[in-house]
Structure formats: structure tokens, C-alpha cells
Write a structure and sequence with these properties.
heterotetramer, A mainly alpha, B alpha/beta, C mainly alpha, D alpha+beta, A: mainly alpha, 13 helices, 2 strands, C: mainly alpha, Four Helix Bundle (Hemerythrin (Met), subunit A), 2 domains, 8 helices, 83% helix, 0% strand
């Protein structure tokens, strides 16, 4: 394969994936508002477009046209860089997510932008870098609310990254690979092959940790409105605010994608006879189901206290995940021998 | 009113509480002593009970079980009373129901709403359903009077207003007319009310039947802020509440039982509250630029003033600067002004409006009796056995002091003897009167002394104790009655009758008005009155001689030493020890000799001896006649500083004008004629950048680099009290009340007394004999006005436009002059045209013109005779011979 | 091509390393260090060690450096930074000697270092995760376990040291 | 049992179930600017001053509303009607709507039913000074929302429907003469209108 073709293929795939992701982010906000409204017997946005369908676009336009305010006393460089540090890792992760079975395109293989053999670790590596955006943004704003939000976020992300990392080890043991495509293919052949059934505990801990990792209710400590106004991005406005916003929703989609890949068979159809439906549809369905679950949780649970959050992470989730690894490892050893 | 501690008390039990009270106490008074409230509309502590409103009904259980009116029932020994038994409450409710059958429920638009007794009692005792048939009265409101509106629909016919007019004010200007259901209150014969407008009927009205046009619909009681302050119109110093709303005065309300007036006010005090808000008030300092006064900042004006004064001091010495103070200034201002003049500017030339007459009283009273001001308080006046009133239209000049006299007349039938050249109001009420020729007070007093001596009315104790002094007086009385009858017009019989009646009284009080002190030989006249009191044995506590002040805070002027011959504390300049004390307190050297008096100062200005003057709180250009050349004198000055509320005639000639604050805008104290030092309090904000007088004096001193720095008036008064002990305590009668003057009197009799006797009883020359004019013109005091402040009140100007010559109606008829006609008044000095008002106030052969009025230049017709230095250098200009002719 | 990328990565690594110790604002130091970590990871990728590269980022950038940042924010270092910078002559001395030593070593040994058991071809065939695993758990099992033991001891020690006061506090409260 | 419940997170699931079911219930909100509530007659919206049917002002300037106001947002300046002695009216009437708590005590205190609250609840303006209502503005409001005002007074038992004969209520004891300022003689409100304020400001 020539370098030119590789680049072209990559560019096309990147454009498509990013386009889909960003559109999903936009309509995720819409979906969240709508679903929450329905849960609260309201109608949600109705004004812009039919049933408010153009609301995300209006919001986006508004945010991009608003004045960009840098607070006096803020560290200007870091204040400007932080949203970007936050957004890039969130988007970069999609590079290794396999959205379809491999197909030929322009003489190369499609289905993933790049099928890294350490793809899973790659995602976690960049997810952990996202925390810098939050912490630096909070620090650079020169505001006590932002600083506290940033600190909380740092503590929370470090704690729950561990949980996420530990909870997927079981899956890795089963599929014996860090490549997401390999993991997906490992679950081929109907929904009863999904890791979910073998690794239910890991799935639960993963989902909980994912909620915490993306700063969503009930774990939205970094931006707890009633305590910290808007947390680390209290002082942000306009474009930069939009970046943080995009990052949060892109992260949500990313962890959902990951969960579907790891536990729900990724792009694999739930049964053989459904194979005629393209793989990316299944991935999208599974991801959106998980996203709905996120919103559902938000609509149901109140925010926990910060010490409860940390205690839960360190004293419950990590031990549970460790035990899960042990059990899985033993199980795999027995089965293999 | 009543004291429970008197001996021989009887006991009464009210609601189970027992109290001992003197005989004659009424139930309502005993209840008040116990702090039990009995509702009442018509009862008033200072009036006789009339039991008209029937709301104060109480149940008496012992000695008989019956309902009584608490306000009118005298207590019997061992009486038992219930004030809120079911029977009482039922009776009260019925009473209120009956009152409310006719009373309109227009409380929202009624000015009394919110402080109305009927409202309060209806809430407290009334019922919500009225069992009687209600019928609204529909009389049109009587708004014909200048000040007071009568709304007969609201009237509950308690009669308190009528009673206050007849009992306290003794005018009976209002009364009931018609009978039965259609009874209304108002002026007799349905005429529009035209009285003194003291407004006390409005104050005692429990409902809103009488209201003031000046405040009508402009306030609600709960919106107002109350500030207790002291009235500044005359020397009485009444206490009242200045009520302000949003920084504007809404009205004045009396405070029952407080201050010299005990809750009475006169028209000036009650309705003269508009001048503070007058548009002509000075708001910014003015500085002369060329021939114009232009507005300037304080810093500029102060620097200018200090520069001018310092230049005059450098050129002509301290004695080249004159300071003139007026009674508008508070005690603290006066003290500071004195210190500024004598300490900072080192000038002995510090004089004041005392020079218009009261200086004589100040010096002679101190010399003879060791007291400053009056010997007696207003309370003494109420309790005296006889009062001799000489040369004062007391109800006009000092209305509240007049009320004290009237109180004695009403309650105790106190005999009041009047010697005056006008038919005054008190003369009509008094027991005896001598109507004398204007200007002959000295002769009349001599006549009285002569009658006492000749008729053997001299107090036995006095005759035995002080034979030399009595003999000296007797020697002076050698002449015939003829020489008294001729100038005065009084007969021997009258004099003897009056002298006899007065001498026979146990506690006789002599009141001397401005026509005694301000006339020729004023000091001698007052000395004669002291002799009279001395001979009749009346120089003792509860009796004595009392000079009445005309202006506000004249006693404050005396105490602050606002005259060249006085030191702070009212002590004579010749008192070396006192001078040393002042020098020590001020850390300065005072000159040995006293400075020049007012008229000398004016001469000095014209002759160039005086280079600069500082005039505060008075307007000599308007208050002195043309013959004194005041305006020319001030024009001759190099530099003139004036400090006042308005741009007065004096201020127009000034180089620097400072805007001062009125009494309602600042704190401080005033001294009333009794010697009470009473507070004024800030009730509103001053207009523009006006400052209190003391701050201005302080700032000028600062510019002159003699720091006189104080944090407030209290600090000034505390310092002043070191030299002026009277300033130490507030609200007590200081002057001479209750003081035994025997020691001072003996020192006086032993001293220069016999020497001064030589010319004391020499009668002065008959006034203006050279004049071919026949009618006597007298500049009289007015009840409604006192000068600058009162004439800037649109309210008072509406009541009395003042610019009128008062003529006897009979005489006017002879000259075919009707009310309102214009007449030409001509004296040797010129003529003026004024409108005429007819009143029997003026005797035939006499016409009166208000003293304060400067518009018509009648004052400039007056010839001036300046008294000798012994007689206080008082410029006498109140009498003149004129011819009055109708202008066609 | 590879050469160019290496030069870029190496240059940035060195520059960032210098900036890390020379910048005055502590947060900038951290940012420089972060950049350096990424470029070191790039170097690993060039060596076909993707696993190492990713772990480098997760461990150093994702965990350790975040903790540094955390501490920096809790401490207000602005006023103390100058004090720290006074040590630079001393640092130059030490670094100079270390550099001299390195240069000496390289001159003595040359660049021809021995190759391990997992050249690029092997890694691409087996997968670098497996290669590392194999190496660690066969040849270097003892050092690996020793290292983990040392870390465990350090962890327990840290816990004991920090918990001591808490335990004492509790005791005092109860007594 | 409790342990099992917490392991399987049954309570949490129950909560989620409830929320899920709630999703399918019909909505209970209004699409505000397009659909509006039917406001009851007793609703306390912006205050207004009412006139008699002949156009004369009802307010007699008694300041009782000012006294009753718990947030001190009313200022009445009363005076005699010029040229008509003994007729009291409000020369100026200020209502600071930014401080108003819409308690309606003022309307209850009013003895002549001159005050009524309208159904206007959209009080936002572009200039805060426009929320300082003066007499003119209040009477304008009263004219525009006369029906609301009447309904308000009836709903609050302050009137039995006999509110608007010219002479006021039938009971003569409550009769207040109506303030008749005559056509063209109506005094210009001395209030702080916006124009006046702007002029003041431009002077400074």
C-alpha cells in the first residue's frame, strides 16, 4: 500500500468518524435535554426547528459568537490552552475504535482509522491526559470555584482511571489482546458470546467508573453547580466553554463506544441472522443505548458527596475489580489447561 | 400637676391599687399617678374639668356604687374606683357608639388619622357593630379663617378647644353656636375666625375637627419624624416637636407639660415654620468682586474673610475691628464669637443686640441683686399673689410668659396691675391699670414708689433692717404728685390704689418690659422698680423684679458676654478677678478698658477708627433707624463680614457673606428669659452649603491661625461652662429663681447705692419736645412677627402682612380714615406712606407701627436719643411725634 | 525519514528537559515535562515499543505528573520559586560531571550496544505486549518481583507513616 | 438480605424504574409564550391606580397603602387639589416595582378602592428606571387593565360589584368626594419620568 493511499484512506475515515462523533455530540445534548424533560414530564426544547431539533445548532452558533472573556489575573496562556488539552484526547480516542468489520477501500483496509495493537491502552493514555485540561483550566482561571473544581476533578479522574483500568483486565485476559478489533472479533457469533455474560462485575464497575470519569451525575463533583457554580469552567465563555462542553460529551460517547466494544460485542450483530445489518449500526445502537443509560442515571440519582465518591472508588470498586481479575485469571487458567 | 406626697393626704383605691393624694384631687389625676389610663376627650391637665365628653366614666364602688366622670369627680377619702369593670366598658362602648352615629368615617383623608383619640378608643373600647341609626352630618367645612379649618362633621363637641381658648388663652375667640344636634364650634356669630391663631384649639382637639391650612393634607402622623427643639422667636424658649417629613417641616406640635410653656405655643412658634425652607435662604458663601457679591466656595470665602480681618488688625490694631452679635445665635456660637473677637482678633469691640435695651437689665440686675436675667420663673408667675407689669405688652412680646400670667388670673384670680401706654390685652384682664402717656414709664414708676412711701406701705421688716436706704428713697420722694401726673396722665388716686394693692400682696412680682429698659433712663427705671420691690418687701424667693427679654436668646448674649462691658458669665468687665479667669482660660491678655458700644462703633466706622466688622445673626441696617447712619457707617468700612440666613440689608454691604444654618438644621442650646439652657436639635438638612455658626467662627479662627477647634456644640458648651456656670446644666431655670438675693442686695445698699440715688429719680426730659407734630408714634412689638425670620414665613405673612399703621378707630373716624386707607406719616425727619389698620389697641393720640417691619421706612422717621453711658448707651428710637394725614 | 523524526523527538526532549528545570512558573515546568514525556513516548514508538510508549503516557503523564500538578496547586509556590533557583550553580556542577561521565563512557564503548532477544521483526510478529511480558516474566522475573516488593514496602511504609498521626489522634480523642 | 440488596443495587434499580416509567407520562407544562395560563381574578400582578367612570382620580392620597406596604416601595405625596380646597388627592404617587413583593396589602388598605392589581406579570424592561412607576404610569395601567382591576377587587371581597357608580359606595359614611380635576386642568405629574431623569443626567 502506498503512503498516499494510506493517508487518503486515513483522512477519509477521520473525516467521517469525526463528523459522526461531533454530530452525535451535538445531538447528545439535544437528546439529554429531551430525555430529561420527558422524565420530568416536560417537553424540553421546542422553539428552534420542529420539536427543537435545531436547538443544538443554535446553541453552537450562540457559543461560537459569544464574547470570549479572559478573567483578569488569569494565566492567559494556560487558560487558552486548557480547553484544547481537554478536547483533543477526547476526540483522538476514536482513532482506534473499530466501527465496522474490515472492508476494502482504495486498496487499504477500513473499519478502523488505525488498528493499534495496544489500542485500549492508547485510549486510556489519552483519557488520562484529558485530566490536564480540567486541572489546568481550573487553576488558570484564578477563581476559587474553578480551582476547587479542577482539584476535585484531578482527584476523581486519577481514582477512577484505576478502576477502569482494573475492570477491563478481565476482558483482556479473555480476549488475550489489547487491540479493540481483536476484542470485538473475540465476541463474534451472537449476543451470548458477549463479554458481558462472562464479565458482569467488570461491566458494572466499568460503567460506574465511566460515569465518574466523564464527570456526569451522580459523580459530577468537579462541576457541582450548587457548590462550585460550574466547577473548573466557571470562568470560561464562548468558544472555550464550548470546547469543554464538546470534550465532556465526546468523552461520554467514547466511553460508551468502548463499553460496547469491550462488553457488548462492538459492531457484531447480536445474532447471526441479523448480520445483514451493517456493523456500524450495531455499534451506534449499543452506544446510544449506553448513552441513554447515562441520561437515565442523571435523571434518577442525586449527586453524592465528594468523600463518598472517593471512598466508593477506593474501598469498593478497586477491591471488587481486583477480585474480579483474580477470579477471571484463575478461570482462564483452568479453562486453558 | 398633683403631688401625692403632700401632708394630710386622703387615700383612694383604683383597680385595687391604693395611693395617697391631696384633697381636691380628681379621679383621673390619681389614676395618672398610678399609671392607669382613663380615656378622655375633653379633659386637659391644665384646664378646669368640664365633663363634656362622658368617655372617662368610671365605676365607683365605695362609698356609693355609681358611675362617675373621672375627670370631674374629686376624690373622697377611702374611695374605691374601677376603671375597666364590665359596667365601665359597656358605658364607654355606648358612648363611642353614640359619638360614631354622626362622626364621619373619613379617617383616610383626615389629618388627625393616626393620632386621633376617637380612633384609638374605638379600637380599644369600641364595638364593631353600631346598634344606633347612623346619620351623617353634612356641614360644609369652614375654611374662611387664614389658618384654622373647622370641620363640624368630625366634631364630637367635647369643648376642649373652647375651653383652651377661654381658660388658657383667655381670648374666647371660639365657642359653640346653635343648639342640639346642629351645634357647631366656631367664631361667634358665624363670622370667620380672626384671632391670635395660637393653634392650641387644634392641638387639644381629640379628633380632626380643627386642622391647619398650612399643613393640610401634607402629612400623615406616622410618616413624620419628631425632633424636640426650642422655639427661637422670643425669649420664652418654648419646647416643641418639629415634625419633618422627607426633610421638610410638616408642622409643629407642642409637648404637653414640657418646657416653659408647659405645652402652649403662640402663633409664631406654631405656624412660623416656613422660613427654613424659604427660597431666599443663603446657600453658598458670597464674596465681593467689584460692586457685586458673587458665589464662592467656603475655602475662598474663609480665606478672604481672614485676610480682610487680619489686614484691619494690622492697620488699626485689635480695636479697629468690631463684632456685632444677634440673638439668633446659639449659646455656643456666642461664646465662640466672643472668643474669636477677644482672643483671636484681640478686639474689645464686641457688642450685640443687647444694646437695644436689655443691657440695662443685665447690668443693674447683676449690680443690685447679683442675678442675671429674671429673679422668678414662669412657675413663680403662676403662683404669685400679685403681678405688676410695667411697659410691656406681654401677650405680644412674650406670649407664653403672658400665658403664665393668664394662668394665675384664671386659676387663682391673681391681681395683675398694668402700667403702660397702650391698651394691652392683659390690661383688660388685670385688676388695675394705669394708661400713661408714651415714654413716661419712669415717671409712673416714680409715682408708684412715691405712693408706697407716702402711704406708709413700706414693709416693716425692710424699714427696720435698712433704715438708711429707705431714708434715702424717702428723701427723693419729696416732690408733689403734680410732677408725676403731668407727664404720665395718671392721677394720684390711681397710683395710690395700685401701690396699695400691690404692696399688700404677699408675693408680688414685678415684670419690666422693653419700654422700661429701652427707654430713656432705662437703667434708672429698672433700679426704681428694684427699689419698689425692696420697699414692699418683695425681694425674696417667689417674688422679685424681672426684666422681660424681647429677642430670642438675649440672656444667652448676656451670659456669653456679648457687650463690651460684659465678660463671659454675664460679669461686668470691671471685675478684675473674672477677667483674670477668662484670660487664664483663653490663654490671652484682655485689655484693661472695655470696648465701644454699638453707637460708638458706628461713629468709629465713619471716623475711620474701625476698619473691619464681623456681624453675625443681626441686621442693624434694617433694625436701626436712619438717623444712626448705620448703612453709611458700614459703607465706610474697609472690610465687612456678615453671617446670616438671608441676604439682609447688612449683608448687601458686606465683603464676605457666610450662609448660616437655622436652628432646625443644627445642634446647640438657647437660653430663655428665665435662664433655662435648652437644646435645639438638628431636624433637617441645611440648604446648600450653609454651615452652623460655630463652625464658621471656628473656621475663620483657623484661617487666622488661632485654632478654636471643637468636635461639636457639646464640647463648646463644656468648655464655656468653665466660665459660664449657667451653661453646665440643661433645662433648669438658672437666673435667679429661688435664689436668696439678700447678700447681694446688702452689698449693693452698702456700696454705691446712696451715691446713685442723686440722679436716679430725676425725671428725663419729655420726649421730642422740639417737634411740632402732635400724634405719638410708637414702634410696637407684634405677636405675629419678630423680624428677619418671621417675615420670611409665607404662613405668618399670610396671617399678618404686618406693614400697617395701627390707629384708634375713633380717632381715625375723626380724620375720615377707614381701614386699609393709605396715610402719610410725617416726622421731623421725613415722611412715609403706609396703610392703616384700625384697632383699639392704640390709644387716642397714639399710633402704633410694628417694630420689625422695615418695608415702609417708618422706622427711619424715628429720632434717636442715645442714652448716657451710665444708662447703657441705649439708642432710644421707639417714640416719635408725627402727624398722620390721609393720602388722597 | 526515521532519522528526521528521531532528531525532532530528541531535540524536543532535551529542550523540554532543560525548560523543566529552568522555567520559573511551576505549572510551566509541569507542562514542559509533560511535553517531554510525550516525545519520549514517541521515541518508544520509533523503537516499535508501542506498549511501552502507551504505558509511559499512562503512568508518567496520566498519574505521576497529575499528582505533581495537584501538589503544585495546593502549595502556592510563587514566592518560594526564587529560592529554589538559587541552587543552579550547584546543579550545573553536578550535571556537568554527569555529562562528562556519559561522554567518557560513550567514547570508551561506542554506540554498538548489544541487541536483545526481541528485534523489530520478532516484535511485529509476536506483538510488543507479548514480547515485553515474555521478557519480564522469564529473564527478568527476579528483578521484576524484587522491584514490586520494594514498591510494596514503600507503599506500606508511606501508609504507616501517614496513618500514624491519625491513629494517635484517634487515641487522644478517645482518652 | 440487606447485603444482597446492596450488591444487586435493587433500590437504585427501583428508582431507575420509576424514572423510566415517568418518561411515558404526558407532559404537564405550558409552552409559555404561545400558550398562557388562564390567570385567576385574584391574581396579584402589577399594581394600578383606578379612576372613576367619569375619569376623575379615585386616589385620595391617604398614604394608607404606604403604611401597609411591607417593603416600603410606595411613596404618596398628598396635597389639596389645586383650586379645590378640602379635596385631598395624591399629587405624586411612586411605586418602586423592583421592591414590590406583590402582597396586595396596599389594595386591601385602600379605603376608596383606588388600587387594584392587574394580571400583568411580564414586567421586564430594558431600563431599570422604567420600573419606578409614577402616578401617570399607574393610572395608565389602570385604564388599560380596568376589567382586571375590577375583577381583582371583587375576587378579594373588597367590592360587591357596586364599585363603579360615580359617587362611590352606597353607604354614605364611606363617601369620599371624587377628585374632579376637570378636563385639561389635570395637573401634570411631577413624577420622575424617564425623560426628566435623562435630562437630569445629561445636565451632570
Amino acid at each position: 500500500m502506498e503512503l498516499g493511499t494510506t493517508v487518503l484512506l486515513a483522512v477519509i475515515q477521520i473525516a467521517v468518524v469525526m463528523g459522526v462523533v461531533l454530530l452525535s455530540v451535538a445531538y447528545m445534548t439535544y437528546a439529554e435535554r429531551k430525555v430529561l424533560s420527558f422524565m420530568q414530564d416536560r417537553l424540553g426544547p421546542m422553539e428552534v426547528g420542529p420539536w427543537g431539533l435545531l436547538q443544538p445548532i443554535a446553541d453552537g452558533l450562540k457559543l461560537f459568537m459569544k464574547e470570549d472573556i479572559i478573567p483578569s489575573g488569569a494565566n492567559k496562556i494556560i487558560f487558552a490552552v486548557a480547553p484544547i488539552i481537554c478536547l483533543i484526547p477526547a476526540l483522538i480516542g476514536f482513532a482506534v475504535v473499530p466501527y465496522s468489520e474490515g472492508f476494502s477501500l482504495l486498496g487499504g483496509t477500513g473499519g478502523t482509522i488505525t488498528d493499534l495493537n495496544v489500542g485500549l491502552l492508547y485510549i486510556f493514555a489519552f483519557a488520562s491526559v484529558g485530566a490536564y485540561g480540567v486541572i489546568l483550566g481550573g487553576w488558570a482561571s484564578n477563581s476559587k470555584y474553578a480551582l476547587l473544581g479542577g482539584l476535585r476533578s484531578g482527584a476523581q479522574v486519577i481514582s477512577y482511571e484505576l478502576v477502569i483500568g482494573l475492570s477491563i483486565v478481565g476482558v483482556l485476559l479473555l480476549s488475550e489482546s489489547l487491540s479493540l478489533r481483536a476484542i470485538t472479533e473475540h465476541q463474534d457469533g451472537g449476543f451470548w458470546h458477549w463479554n458481558l455474560w462472562v464479565q458482569p462485575v467488570a461491566f458494572v464497575t466499568y460503567v460506574i467508573a465511566a460515569v465518574a470519569e466523564t464527570n456526569r451525575l451522580p459523580f459530577d463533583m468537579p462541576e457541582a453547580e450548587s457548590e462550585l457554580v460550574a466547577g473548573f469552567f466557571t470562568e470560561y465563555s464562548g468558544m472555550r466553554f464550548a470546547f469543554f462542553f464538546l470534550a465532556e460529551y465526546a468523552n461520554m460517547i467514547l466511553v460508551s463506544c468502548l463499553a460496547s466494544v469491550l462488553f457488548l460485542g462492538g459492531y457484531e450483530a447480536p445474532a447471526e441472522f441479523l448480520n445483514f445489518v451493517p456493523g456500524f449500526v450495531w455499534l451506534a445502537l449499543k452506544t446510544w443505548a449506553l448513552l441513554f443509560f447515562f441520561i437515565w442515571i442523571r435523571g434518577t440519582f442525586p449527586r453524592v458527596r465528594f468523600d463518598q465518591l472517593m471512598k466508593f472508588g477506593w474501598k469498593v470498586l478497586i477491591p471488587v475489580a481486583l477480585v474480579n481479575i483474580l477470579v477471571t485469571a484463575v478461570g482462564v487458567y483452568i479453562v486453558n489447561n | 400637676m398633683t403631688t401625692a406626697t403632700k401632708v394630710g393626704t386622703i387615700t383612694v383605691t383604683i383597680n385595687g391599687e391604693t395611693i395617697g393624694v391631696p384633697k381636691g384631687t380628681r379621679i383621673i389625676q390619681a389614676a395618672q399617678l398610678l399609671g392607669i389610663e382613663i380615656p378622655t376627650f375633653c379633659y386637659h391637665p391644665r384646664m378646669r374639668p368640664q365633663a363634656a365628653c362622658r368617655i372617662c366614666t368610671v365605676e365607683v364602688v365605695k362609698p356609693m356604687n355609681k358611675m362617675f366622670m373621672a375627670c370631674a369627680t374629686e376624690i373622697m377619702d377611702g374611695m374605691e374606683v374601677l376603671t375597666d369593670s364590665p359596667r365601665t366598658l359597656a358605658d364607654r362602648r355606648t358612648n363611642l357608639d353614640l359619638l360614631l352615629t354622626q362622626h364621619p368615617l373619613d379617617c383616610p383623608v383626615c389629618d388627625k388619622g393616626g393620632e386621633c383619640k376617637l380612633q384609638d378608643y374605638s379600637v380599644k373600647y369600641g364595638s364593631s357593630e353600631n346598634p344606633f341609626e347612623t346619620k351623617r352630618k353634612d356641614y360644609p367645612e369652614d375654611i374662611r379663617s387664614t389658618v384654622l379649618d373647622f370641620n363640624s362633621n368630625r366634631c364630637i363637641l367635647c369643648g376642649a378647644c373652647i375651653q383652651v381658648c377661654s381658660d388658657i388663652q383667655q381670648l374666647s375667640a371660639i365657642g359653640f353656636s346653635k343648639r342640639g344636634f346642629i351645634t357647631v364650634v366656631g367664631a361667634p356669630m358665624g363670622e370667620p375666625l380672626d384671632c391670635e391663631f395660637c393653634g392650641q384649639c387644634m392641638d387639644v382637639c381629640p379628633v380632626g375637627a380643627i386642622t391647619s391650612r398650612f399643613s393640610k393634607y401634607k402629612f400623615r402622623p406616622w410618616q413624620e419624624e419628631k425632633t424636640q427643639t426650642t422655639c427661637t422667636y422670643c425669649g420664652c424658649g418654648c419646647q416643641y416637636n418639629l415634625r419633618t417629613m422627607d426633610g421638610e417641616v410638616s408642622r409643629v406640635t407642642p409637648i404637653e407639660g414640657v418646657g416653659p410653656g408647659q405645652g402652649s405655643l403662640c402663633v409664631r412658634g406654631h405656624f412660623g415654620f416656613h422660613f427654613m425652607e424659604d427660597a431666599q435662604r443663603l446657600t453658598k458663601p458670597l464674596v465681593r468682586r467689584g460692586d457685586k457679591l458673587v458665589e464662592a466656595g467656603w475655602d475662598e470665602a474663609l480665606a478672604e474673610a481672614a485676610k480682610g480681618l487680619a489686614a484691619a488688625k494690622a492697620a488699626k490694631g485689635g480695636a479697629g475691628i468690631a463684632g456685632i452679635a444677634g440673638g439668633r445665635l446659639a449659646n455656643e456660637d456666642l461664646y465662640l464669637f466672643g472668643r474669636l473677637m477677644r482672643n483671636a482678633l484681640e478686639s474689645p469691640n464686641f457688642d450685640s443686640t443687647l444694646r437695644y435695651g436689655y443691657i440695662n437689665a443685665a447690668t443693674i440686675m447683676h449690680k443690685a441683686l447679683g442675678v442675671t436675667g429674671m429673679m422668678n420663673s414662669f412657675d413663680d408667675l403662676r403662683r404669685a399673689d400679685a403681678v405688676l407689669l410695667v411697659g410691656s405688652d406681654i401677650t405680644q412680646e412674650a406670649p407664653i410668659c403672658g400665658l403664665a400670667v393668664k394662668d394665675g388670673i384664671t386659676k387663682r384670680k391673681m391681681p395683675v396691675f398694668t402700667v403702660d401706654s397702650m391698651k394691652t390685652e392683659i390690661m383688660k384682664l388685670g385688676a388695675g391699670r394705669l394708661v400713661i402717656t408714651p415714654g413716661s414709664e419712669v415717671a409712673a414708676i416714680k409715682g408708684l414708689v412715691k405712693a408706697v412711701v407716702d402711704e406708709g406701705l413700706i414693709d416693716a421688716g425692710v424699714a427696720a433692717k435698712y433704715p438708711a436706704a429707705v431714708a434715702a428713697i424717702k428723701k427723693e420722694m419729696a416732690g408733689t404728685y403734680k410732677e408725676i401726673e403731668t407727664p404720665t396722665g395718671a392721677t394720684k388716686a390711681d397710683l395710690v390704689a395700685m401701690a396699695r394693692a400691690f404692696a399688700n400682696a404677699d408675693k408680688g412680682i414685678i415684670l419690666a418690659g422693653p419700654r422700661v429698659m429701652g427707654g430713656l433712663k432705662g437703667a434708672s427705671a429698672l433700679a426704681m422698680l428694684i427699689d419698689l420691690a425692696f420697699l414692699t418687701g418683695n425681694l425674696k424667693p417667689g417674688a422679685g423684679v424681672n426684666p422681660l427679654t424681647g429677642e430670642n436668646n438675649e440672656l444667652g448674649l448676656v451670659l456669653a458676654g456679648a457687650a463690651p462691658e460684659l465678660l463671659p458669665g454675664g460679669l461686668p468687665w470691671s471685675d478684675g478677678a473674672a477677667r483674670a479667669r477668662v484670660e487664664q482660660a483663653w490663654n490671652c491678655a484682655l485689655p484693661e478698658f472695655p470696648g465701644n458700644s454699638l453707637t460708638d462703633l458706628f461713629d468709629g466706622m465713619r471716623e475711620g477708627r474701625i476698619g473691619a466688622a464681623y456681624i453675625a445673626g443681626t441686621d442693624p441696617v434694617r433694625s436701626l433707624p436712619a438717623e444712626l447712619n448705620v448703612a453709611a457707617s458700614l459703607d465706610a468700612l474697609d472690610f465687612l463680614v456678615v453671617q446670616d440666613l438671608f441676604l439682609t440689608g447688612t449683608a448687601l454691604r458686606a465683603d464676605v457673606v457666610f450662609p448660616a444654618q437655622s436652628y432646625a438644621e443644627r445642634d446647640g442650646t438657647f437660653t430663655n428669659m428665665e435662664g433655662r439652657v435648652q437644646r435645639i436639635r438638628q431636624a433637617m438638612k441645611a440648604p446648600g452649603k450653609a454651615r452652623p455658626d460655630w463652625q464658621i467662627f471656628s473656621a475663620v479662627a483657623r484661617e487666622l491661625e488661632v485654632p478654636l477647634e471643637y468636635a461639636g456644640t457639646d464640647e463648646i458648651r463644656a468648655e464655656a461652662a468653665g466660665l459660664i456656670p449657667q451653661f453646665a446644666a440643661l433645662d433648669v431655670t438658672n437666673a435667679g429663681h429661688g435664689v436668696d438675693v439678700t447678700a447681694a442686695l446688702e452689698a449693693y445698699l452698702a456700696g454705691a447705692y446712696l451715691k446713685t440715688m442723686d440722679d436716679r429719680y430725676d425725671l428725663p426730659a419729655v420726649l421730642n419736645t422740639a417737634s411740632p407734630h402732635e400724634t405719638r408714634l410708637y414702634l410696637a412689638d407684634s405677636l405675629f412677627h419678630s423680624g428677619q425670620m418671621s417675615t420670611h414665613n409665607w404662613g405668618l405673612m399670610k396671617i399678618d402682612p404686618a406693614d400697617e399703621l395701627v390707629m384708634n378707630p375713633r380717632e381715625a373716624r375723626k380724620l375720615q380714615i377707614a381701614e386699609g386707607d393709605k396715610v402719610r406719616v410725617t416726622s421731623l425727619l421725613g415722611s412715609a406712606v403706609v396703610p392703616v389698620k384700625l384697632s383699639s389697641h392704640a390709644n387716642p393720640g397714639t399710633v402704633l407701627f410694628p417694630k420689625h417691619c422695615a418695608q415702609s421706612h417708618v422706622r427711619d422717621l424715628m429720632g434717636v436719643v442715645v442714652g448716657s453711658r451710665e444708662e447703657g448707651s441705649v439708642p432710644q428710637f421707639r417714640f416719635e411725634r408725627v402727624t398722620v394725614e390721609k393720602v388722597h | 525519514m526515521m532519522q528526521a523524526i528521531f532528531i525532532y523527538l530528541a531535540t524536543v526532549c532535551v529542550v523540554c528537559a532543560v525548560l523543566t528545570v529552568s522555567l520559573r512558573q511551576p505549572v510551566y515546568n509541569v507542562m514542559a515535562l509533560l511535553t517531554m514525556f510525550f516525545h519520549v513516548a514517541g521515541l518508544y514508538v520509533l523503537l516499535n515499543a508501542e506498549f511501552l510508549a502507551v504505558v509511559q503516557i499512562i503512568v508518567y503523564a496520566g498519574a505521576i505528573l497529575v499528582l505533581y500538578l495537584f501538589v503544585l496547586m495546593l502549595l502556592n509556590l510563587r514566592s518560594e520559586s526564587r529560592h529554589l533557583h538559587r541552587q543552579w550553580p550547584f546543579a550545573v556542577l553536578i550535571l556537568g560531571s554527569v555529562a562528562a561521565m556519559l561522554v567518557g563512557a560513550m567514547q570508551a564503548g561506542g554506540f554498538g550496544l548489544p541487541t536483545g532477544e526481541a528485534p523489530a521483526q520478532v516484535i511485529q510478529a509476536v506483538g510488543n505486549t507479548e514480547s515485553i511480558g515474555l521478557t519480564l516474566y522469564t529473564d527478568y522475573l527476579l528483578p521484576f518481583e524484587l522491584a514490586s516488593l520494594v514498591l510494596l514496602v514503600a507503599m506500606i511504609g508511606a501508609i504507616v507513616l501517614t496513618k500514624k498521626e491519625l491513629i494517635q489522634d484517634h487515641g487522644e480523642e478517645q482518652s | 438480605m440487606g447485603l444482597i440488596r446492596s450488591i444487586f443495587m435493587t433500590e437504585l434499580l427501583m428508582g431507575m424504574k420509576l424514572v423510566f416509567k415517568q418518561m411515558f407520562k404526558p407532559y404537564c407544562t405550558l409552552q409559555y409564550p404561545h400558550v398562557r395560563h388562564d390567570i385567576p381574578d385574584g391574581y396579584r400582578g402589577l399594581m394600578s391606580l383606578l379612576r372613576y367612570e367619569d375619569g376623575s382620580e379615585r386616589c385620595v392620597g391617604c398614604s394608607l397603602c404606604e403604611a401597609a406596604c411591607p417593603s416600603n416601595c410606595i411613596k404618596v405625596v398628598s396635597d389639596e387639589v389645586p383650586g379645590q380646597p378640602l379635596v385631598r388627592y395624591a399629587r405624586e404617587y411612586y411605586l418602586d416595582i423592583t421592591r414590590c413583593v406583590f402582597c396586595g396589602f396596599c389594595t386591601e388598605a385602600c379605603p376608596v378602592d383606588a388600587l387594584a392589581m392587574t394580571k400583568v406579570y411580564e414586567a421586564s424592561v430594558f431600563d431599570r428606571r422604567d420600573l419606578m412607576f409614577d402616578k401617570r404610569k399607574l393610572y395608565e395601567l389602570g385604564e388599560q387593565h380596568l376589567a382586571d382591576g375590577k375583577a381583582y377587587l371583587i375576587a378579594h371581597n373588597m367590592d360587591d360589584g357596586t364599585l363603579f357608580p360615580k359617587e362611590g359606595l352606597g353607604d354614605n359614611r364611606y363617601s369620599f368626594p371624587p377628585v374632579d380635576l376637570g378636563e385639561g386642568e389635570r395637573p401634570v405629574t411631577v413624577g420622575l419620568t424617564r425623560e426628566a431623569l435623562e435630562m437630569e443626567l445629561s445636565k451632570q
